[in-house]
Fold this protein.
Amino acid sequence: MPGIVKYLAGVDTPETLVFGITGRQGKSKSRLMNKFGTHIIAGCTPGKGGQEVDGVPVFNSAAEAVETFPQLNTAVFFVPAGAVKKAAMDAMDAGLKFLVLTADGVPSHDEILLKEYASTKDSVYLGPNTVGLLDTEGYLFGLIGGSATWAKKNYKPGKVGVISRSGGLSQLLGAFHCRPNLPGIREDGSYGPLWGEDYPGLSAVVCVGGDPVPGISMLDAAKAFEKDPRTEIIAAYGETGTTQENDLAAAVIDGRITKPIVIFLGGKFTKAGVAQSHAGAMIRNNSETWEAKNRALLNAGITVVERPDAVFGAVRDRLKS
């Protein structure tokens, strides 16, 4: 069965190129991804072509890598923020279909130009400022999990698709849906296991990132989960800033998204002009406030909770109904 990248970018079997593979983070995260099951067949660091990292050949450019390995279709980037725009454009020019841009601090001007450039190419990208994507079919792009052993133990196949604008909550919402006997507030108000050994499990985690101009949006990810036959329910983390949650609500109202959604909406007390940890959480107009988003989501019939830990009980209840 194809993983979520099939529905995000039309990629059946990810064949991966890692930008910055010779750097410290590139090396360590490539090992994590490889051990989780990601098929990394090439790396790219300008000026270091001809080297190898753990047996993976390194090239000076994406074009050189694709010339040698034409099956390449996916790229993960561990490069400095100032280098993201050029590296991502080079990857798109080389024909890579799905890109994951992990860097934090990419200039908004670069993000706008990159978004415009991607619209002219047959490519999509996740990020910037993302921990990436994990699919329980057996591949990981980015930083999720900390170690492959921990990730394999804590992210188990199941029916919940996770979408988040936060790296930390991407991992929490994913892993806790896979935990047997997860404790929480039950329907009768008591505290105890929300479910037994039969946890709902996870199809995939998609972190869209915390920047104001994301490549893949919450709605894009929801559309992918809508197509994914494993996913029965979407669990999400949203916040103030941008109109991603508003767009998601509109898609539910007009029938583009039909699967149930549970969302923790952060930023209830965020003031206009102040970012809530993410640059993308800054409120720029009334539609980006917590109140406007909460109203839009509730009007669409989406379950909104006010604490991250309340997501799990709400997911259980929606699955029962």
Notes: Residues 24-36 form the longest helix (13 residues).
